[in-house]
Amino acid sequence: MSEAFEPRIVGFLCNWCSYRAADLAGISRIKHAPNVRIIRVMCSGRVDPSFVLKALALGADGVMVAGCHPGECHYIEQNYKTIRRYGMLKHTLKAFGLEDDRVRLIWASAAEGQQLAEAIDRFVQDVRRLGPLNWPRFWNEDPARLAAVEKMAAEHAEAMEVPA
Predict the structure, then answer these.
(1) pTM, rounded to two decimals
(2) What is the average pLDDT score of the chain?
């Protein structure tokens, strides 16, 4: 008897909108697929494409980047940078021979918990249809793997800090 494939997804969520939408979904008891491991970042514009590639290399079957709607970014125009990076990342994944549907960009304001939950469910279904990525042979529920991605994001953010 074989088990159904359950995708492992890493989600980089903007602190100001998408992370709060996820929080709203949680406190509103809105059900969604539990497959996303959320990493809070200050802005979707701070998600370096190497974070996405590292997450995939460490065993994620898909990566979701979620941020504020364009024009509503807490950091003025950083989500426009996210749009440009996302396009380049999709091109890079295609060059690697990976399905570019393994990475998804989602916009969700703090009040859109229901919409974020629905977007998560759609993404999980899409990745489930693609099947396992299998870059690492097996994914262990090793907290060190997720901690490695979080540490890398924190180090990158620290290195990129601009003095006020």
Answers:
(1) 0.81
(2) 89
